[in-house]
Amino acid sequence: MKRILILGGGTAGTMMAAKLVHVLPLDDWEIAVVDQDDEHVYQPGLLFLPFGDYTRSELVKRRSAVLPPAAKLILAVVDRIVPDENRVTLLGGASIAYDFLIIATGSRIVPAETEGLTGKGWRDTAFDFYTLDGASALGEKLRTWKGGRLVVNVVEMPIKCPVAPLEFLFLAEAFFAGRGMRDDVELVYATPLDSAFTKKRCSDMMGGLLEERGIAVETTFNTGEVDGSARMLRSWDGREIPYDLLVTVPTHRGSAAIATSGLGNELDFVPTDRHTLQSRAFENVFVIGDATDLSSSKAGSVAHFQAEVLTGNVRRAIAGLPLDPGFDGHANCFIETGYGKATLIDFNYDVEPLAGRFPLPIVGPFTLLEETRVNHWGKLAFRSIYWNVLLKGHELPTVGPRMSMAGKRG
């Protein structure tokens, strides 16, 4: 029997396993997934955890219960990939051979790479919200925090879900207003970008909302050091930002196994063909989701769109056919703006977010680049869609992998 080995049982790896068990003859092919634990976290929910909108248990399911029964789950830590020998070694010495390899190892935060960040004050006056433990600890802090200067800092790009820091600020502003302590809290956004976001039209909108909500923005702030004793953020060019509470988005890297294997770039993300999702170095290796070095967003929607293209390309590779250059960088993100509203952006490698209706022209029901309650409900409804539709390998009607211009206006 031949084997497709998927490294990583997160969003991208689970979707690929679910799709492949439906399209490949399982008498001939084994679909195996390797992950280090049996815990699948609904990552979009981490944003809401600090504000008490979700509980920790609502965001976690057993990985073995989420993956399709026809796929084999191997709970182990990957030591290294040996692509010249078509095998992966595990910690402890075991080795797994493969015919095709799909790298879906995601990204990880590495707060220890910023000087001082994990020193004095870590998980007391400095927190992340990109991990289950970090978001939970921050939630505990916010429940009793009396106010002061709260700084959200993105250390460097790229990061997972690039709109999440903005969403956190909007939700925090509404959270403090709801508690009657908005006048006691100063909110600051320190970003390495030269504006609020990477895409100009979206950045203009987000910048306007930040100003409207009284949230200060410090641009081109490249974090060099965190002094937890003085509660001070320092940039490489000598600027200082004091804080009472720091919410950090630390440096992101790819999997440690990618680094060990020597397959990644300077941040351990795997060089990947931007349209076919094939590894640039090995024909029988494909890459999906946050593990790639692509300029598309590191977001769950991107992994979903990539999975549709990659499933077809795995089948083409098995059949010896040319690959489909079908991935266009399509990304689609709801952006929570607080007070029960959200906006929505839809873009790809070449097209900036545009105004209009989504996914259907005129009808919508979602509105692009505008705050609406329907968009907020769409964001909340996505949790059920995630568990019951996307992870099971099903498609979303009217939302294809390629960005559509229907309903959009320039």
The gist of it:
The chain has 410 residues and is an alpha/beta fold.
Give the % helix: 10-25%
Distance between the termini: 52 Å
Using DSSP, what is the number of strands?
25
Described by strand count, sense and barrel closure, the largest sheet is: 5 strands, parallel
User: What percentage of amino acids are in beta strands?
Assistant: 25-35%
Going across the major beta sheet, what is the strand order?
A: 5-2-1-9-20
Q: Structural class, please?
A: alpha/beta
Describe the protein in words.
The protein is α/β, with parallel strands linked by helices and 410 residues long. It is built from eight helices and 25 strands. A five-stranded parallel sheet has the order 5-2-1-9-20, covered by helices on one side. Strands 11-18-12-13-14 form a five-stranded parallel sheet. A hairpin with a 4-residue loop joins strand 16 (232-235) and strand 17 (240-242). Helix 1 (11-23) packs parallel to helix 7. The N and C termini lie far apart (52 Å).
Quick tags:
five-stranded parallel β-sheet, 25 strands, 410 residues, alpha/beta
Give the secondary structure arrangement, pairings included.
Layout: E1 2-7, H1 11-23, E2 29-35, E3 39-41, E4 60-62, H2 63-66, E5 72-75, E6 78-82, E7 87-90, E8 95-97, E9 100-103, E10 107-109, E11 126-127, H3 132-144, E12 148-154, H4 164-178, E13 185-190, H5 200-212, E14 215-218, E15 223-227, E16 232-235, E17 240-242, E18 245-249, E19 252-254, H6 256-261, E20 285-287, H7 300-319, E21 331-338, E22 341-347, E23 355-360, E24 364-368, H8 373-390, E25 408-409
Parallel strand pairs: 1-2, 1-9, 2-5, 9-20, 11-18, 12-13, 12-18, 13-14
Antiparallel strand pairs: 3-4, 6-7, 7-8, 10-19, 15-16, 16-17, 21-22, 23-24, 23-25
Helix pairs in contact: 1-7
